[in-house]
Model the fold of this input.
Amino acid sequence: VGVTNSAGVYFCKSTRKVPVYGVDTDKKVIALTFDAAWGADKTQGILDIMSEYNAKGTFFLVGFWIDKYEKETKAIAEAGFEIGNHSRNHLNMPKLSENEIENEIEYVNDRVFDLTGKKPKYFRAPFGDYDNKLMTSLEGLNMVGVQWSIDSLDWKGLSAKQIYDRVVPKVKSGDIVLFHNNSDHVLDALPMVLTALRAQGFEFVTIADLVLTEGYTIDSNGIQHKNA
Done:
């Protein structure tokens, strides 16, 4: 069971601070997310496919990816998609000092702001590695850590059907699904996933439109629950 203090900082009874893995909601909404660290060949294709389905999503960008692909970074924002922060150098964040952590995060925030006029609010740690030090740094930067509840494992070279099978049968309202922007079969899998989930009545939203920002608790599994 999680609790929220007056400042909105969330804790578990164990005092381990946890990022958001998903949201407990009756609304048929899910967030598709795309981590971008290496390669950009398929980014526009993802934007085009998502737009065909009137679906929005969130791209978590690494700093060195932004530096190499400024045009694609702008295109993501201009297409109406959300940009999240995935650190500057894709390092194991818990191994860094507080100052190094903040530099990793703020570099990306500044670059995204320079290119798009908006600063990221949400942060996804490389390798999904969090600790209390990182979570405290995020709180100080007024940011929120975000994980995922469903991992497509698309980066492992899975076929489109295998990706589909890892995602569609498992999805429930409030889930956050992890894809990668340049995985081998993401462009083949995405229409299959979108078609099936849309037929089930799901809408596809950004992290900002899914995650609760006030009046919630977060449990030890990272699921947000709206206060009664």
Remarks:
- The chain has a mean pLDDT of 95.
- Helices lie at 43-52, 63-68, 70-78, 98-116, 132-140, 160-167, 186-199, 207-210.
- The two ends are 14 Å apart (CA to CA).
- Residues 2-226 form a domain with the TIM Barrel fold (CATH 3.20.20.370).
